[in-house]
Design goal:
By secondary structure, chain A is an alpha+beta fold. Helix content of chain A is 34%, strand content 16%. In chain A, strand 9 (271-273) and strand 10 (280-282) form a beta hairpin. In chain B, helix 5 runs antiparallel to helix 6 and helix 16 (404-443) crosses helix 17 (467-474). Chain B is globular and about 90 Å long. Classes of the chains: A alpha+beta (330), B mainly alpha (528).
Chain lengths: 330, 528
């Protein structure tokens, strides 16, 4: 026995095993019938599809186990289509597996690399052609071409300029101003402190001038949440305390993280939670972030009441609302 | 010659005289394709793409991609009289008034989910079997491109109906753009035609969703398939299969019938899902309003990992010289995904640099025989899985009565701890499987039959395995570690000593394996 290490040998492609349908005419006929039946089931599926489209009412609901109350039109239309498609596939595959030739064959691969001869020929062709064009020599043309191609690349950027206006101070301004009344959303009614009980939350918007209409852009910046707790529960600086009124505190509803509406208020813990990324803000401590990815508290709106007893803003927001951006200074 | 043959002959002659297609067709109709279930995964992705084109075209006939405000007066009672965008109103119209419209919407959405799932599983197949190795690196990169574009295309698609859920998704996308240092605000204002939400974004992403990206998809998929065709498919090792040949079934007729039939199977299953499984019921969400939100806001699954990373980010933001840099957005939403996708795209080149292997490979690796690659894959998947789980932390919290904070802290720790554990465990499993293969080749299959020897000892009878299986289990290469010296012949440290050392270490780790059995081993056992 030699000491050379011998690997286990490749026994080569195993002999082909014939299927039953290849040798037995009865099995062959049976397979043929099976394929035909599968195709016929598909045809029935299409019939169901057409029937459902025209003859099942779109308002017909019925109870179907697991699915619950189901729209019959939609269900049978879909099932018809599914059956029609699926069984064409099943028939074709069954046909291929039982009746079409199933002998494995061997084809040879060729390496991707071209022959050295061809590669050398390519190199000399490229060199010769490029030389004839004088690309290497004519540096004046080369440089001016580089300049013009580079410049023309800028034109799409120029053309895209009118996609939108420059930001200016759009992100830092809201519709809130000194004396703006708080109105309910929805309803647009001014509200008095006594409309809110302790523990209550309300969504408000700034009252607009009669000629103004509230757009989604406005709501995206102006939406404010009013929350009323017992005044003694506040843990605020004297300045921030002066921004509240009788236990009512107002925060921007637009999350300081990524701008979702901070809509979940838990009365027992006095936490505001953003449903998008679970940033949690502590209401009595001026919406300080106590959990989650948000890095800043929700901006607080200074509120008070006017002569008629309605809630108004003392002044605009003292910082931009919503998510962070480069030009934001605080 | 029958009449039918005569007609076919005339047609074929007409085409060939104008294209010379006969030569190419003759060669390619008998082209050989290896068969294995895992090769169908890419096909699922291709067929879902065709389903997306068909169902998507149907939807465009009624969809009105406009954020113009309209008063809803359609068939769905609960929303009657509400102000909403024309996009949302037309999506409701498709769902309730166009016959088959809801079915097509649901087929389109299911097909998109299946498309992305098929791409991801196909990618895993290609990765774990080493099918990305030379000469298929280009196709790997195209594949990573398709995956990335697929995520974008899917996001834009479910953003189009302008319902409360999708509007929230757009809001988050806008916040990510706005977070970019220096240019963020400008890009956001250009993309949205002003401040969020504006009235320009949905018409714009509609064009990108139905024209620009599908066009790029078509081009990339065409090149992807042409390369598969030209380079010929990889195959699993087995008897008669070598690096120089390809064993399988000829295109015509069996492979054609199977692949064509499989398209109908995929379409049929998607239609079945569209018929019975409700998806994205936009009428329940209501029209988008930036001041409102629904609890449990979730992106589609292929975006979930990204959302999960954003959710687990610590609350850090830089304030420098009157400027704000929100690292809590930039790191999880842009930097980490950027690293992941760049690493993914470059992987074939990294591996070939470490192994020094510049040969062509057409035989696939069994994942156990390349333990480090397999372990690295398991590690990456674990990372993505933790991120994905955290993306659904609110849903998990409500369904399993857990605290959201507990899940978040679990994820924050697990994303660092679990991936390395997955690496080590996977590598151990691979080596154990190699050991089991060795046992099987050397000592045969356990039959479960017990035999009493004359002196009373009980032994289990082992049956030798077939030569085919023995070959399959030992056909792989076991390359030794690269001999890379730290110093040259004159005892001087070589340039790039650190890179050299790194490469050497990984190469040594790659060489760790259970020696595959040889004929010598088998003969030795026979002697005993």
């Amino acid at each position: 026995m030699s000491n050379e290490i011998e690997a286990i040998k490749d026994p080569g492609l195993p002999a082909h095993v014939h299927r039953k349908a290849d040798t037995d005419p009865v099995a062959e006929k049976r397979a043929e019938r099976q394929v035909a039946i599968l195709f016929l089931i598909s045809a029935l599926g299409t019939v169901l599809f057409i029937y459902s489209y025209y003859f099942i009412s779109e308002d017909a609901f019925f109870f179907f186990p697991i699915l619950g109350d189901t729209n019959a039109h939609q269900l049978f239309l879909g099932l018809g289509l599914a059956i029609a498609l699926f069984f064409i596939g099943a028939a074709a595959i069954h046909w291929a597996k039982t009746l079409m030739p199933d002998e494995e064959v061997i084809a040879m691969r060729h390496t991707m690399r071209s022959d050295d001869e061809d590669r050398d020929a390519l190199v000399s062709t490229v060199k010769e052609r490029a030389g004839a064009a004088g690309l290497g020599r004519r540096s004046l043309i080369k440089r001016s071409m580089g300049l013009s191609l580079g410049l023309i690349g800028l034109s799409p950027l120029v053309l895209l300029r009118d996609l939108g206006p420059l930001p200016k101070d759009d992100l830092t301004k809201t519709s809130w101003a000194a004396g703006t009344r708080l109105v309910t959303d929805p309803g647009d009614r001014p509200i008095r402190p006594e409309d809110l009980e302790v523990g209550a939350v309300a969504q408000v918007q700034p009252k607009l001038r009669p000629d103004q209409e509230r757009t989604l852009n406005d709501i995206g910046k102006d939406a404010v949440l009013l929350i009323r707790i017992r005044p003694e529960e506040f843990q605020l600086s004297p300045e921030r305390l002066s921004w509240t009124h009788d236990g009512i505190i107002a925060f921007s509803k637009i999350c300081s993280h990524m701008g979702c509406a901070v809509a979940l208020y838990e009365q027992s813990t006095k936490h505001l939670l953003c449903p998008c990324h679970q940033s949690t803000f502590d209401v009595p401590r001026a919406a300080k972030v106590i959990f989650g990815p948000a890095a800043r508290p929700l901006p607080q709106l200074a509120i008070t009441v006017d002569a008629e007893g309605y809630l108004i803003a003392q002044k605009p927001f003292s910082e931009p609302v919503g998510p962070s951006f480069w030009e934001r200074s605080s | 010659m029958t009449a039918r043959e005569r007609v076919a002959g005339t047609v074929a002659n007409y085409v060939d005289e104008r294209t010379g297609a006969a030569k190419w067709m003759k060669k390619n109709l008998t082209k050989v394709f290896p068969d294995h279930w895992s090769f169908l995964l890419g096909e699922v992705a291709l067929y879902s793409f065709i389903i997306l084109l068909l169902s998507g075209t149907f939807l465009t006939f009624w969809f009105d991609p406009s954020q113009r405000e309209v008063l809803y007066d359609g068939a769905y009672e609960p929303l009657k009289g509400l102000h909403m965008s024309a996009a949302y109103a037309s999506a409701l119209h498709i769902s309730f008034e166009v016959r088959g419209g809801l079915l097509m919407r649901q087929i389109h959405h299911w097909a998109a989910l299946i498309f992305m799932a098929a791409i991801v599983v196909h990618l895993m197949r290609v990765y774990f079997t080493g099918a990305f190795r030379k000469p298929r690196e280009f196709n790997w990169i195209i594949g990573v491109g398709l995956l990335t574009l697929g995520i974008v295309e899917g996001f834009l698609g479910y953003s189009l109906p302008d319902d409360l859920l999708s509007g929230t998704g757009i809001r988050i996308a806008e916040a990510i753009i706005q977070a970019l240092p220096v240019v963020g605000t400008y890009i956001a204002f250009f993309a949205f035609g002003g401040a969020f939400p504006g009235e320009a974004f949905i018409p714009r992403i509609f064009t990108v969703h139905v024209l620009l990206l599908p066009g790029i998809f078509l081009a990339l998929i065409t090149v992807h398939l042409m390369l598969v065709w030209y380079q010929k498919h990889t195959q699993w090792p087995g008897p008669g299969r070598t690096e120089k040949n390809v064993v399988g079934y000829p295109l015509m007729p069996a492979y054609m019938a199977k692949a064509g039939g499989f398209f109908f199977i995929v379409f049929g299953v998607t239609a079945f899902l569209g018929a019975v499984a409700s998806i994205n019921p936009i009428w329940l969400y209501g029209p988008y309003n930036p001041g409102q939100i629904s609890a449990g806001s979730q992106p589609d699954w292929y975006m979930g990992w990204l959302d999960g990373l954003v959710r687990m980010s610590p609350p850090i933001e830089l304030h420098i010289l009157n400027h704000t840099v929100p690292l809590n957005i930039l790191i999880p939403a842009l930097i980490v995904p950027g690293i992941i996708f760049t690493g993914l795209a470059l992987y074939p080149f990294i591996e070939s640099w470490i192994t020094g292997d510049k040969r062509e490979h057409h035989l696939l690796d069994r994942p156990r025989n390349v333990p480090n690659r397999t372990a690295l894959g398991a590690m990456s998947l674990t990372f993505m899985l933790v991120a994905l789980i955290n993306g659904g932390n609110d849903i998990i919290a409500t369904n399993f009565h857990l605290g959201i904070n507990q899940i978040m802290w679990f994820s924050r720790i697990a994303i660092f701890v679990l991936p390395p554990i997955a690496f080590v465990v996977t590598k151990r499993i691979c080596l154990s499987l190699q050991r089991a293969d060795r046992e099987l080749v050397l000592h045969g299959r356990e039959t479960g039959r017990l035999m009493m020897l004359p002196h009373g000892e009980f032994v289990e009878v082992h049956e030798p395995i077939s030569p085919e299986l023995a070959w399959k289990l030992t056909a792989h290469e076991q390359a030794p570690a690269l001999a890379l010296e730290d110093v040259d012949a004159r005892r001087v440290r070589r340039a790039g000593a650190f890179r050299n050392k790194l490469r050497k270490r990984i190469s040594q780790a790659n060489a760790e394996s259970i020696a595959k059995p040889t004929l010598n081993d088998l003969k030795e056992i026979e002697h005993h």
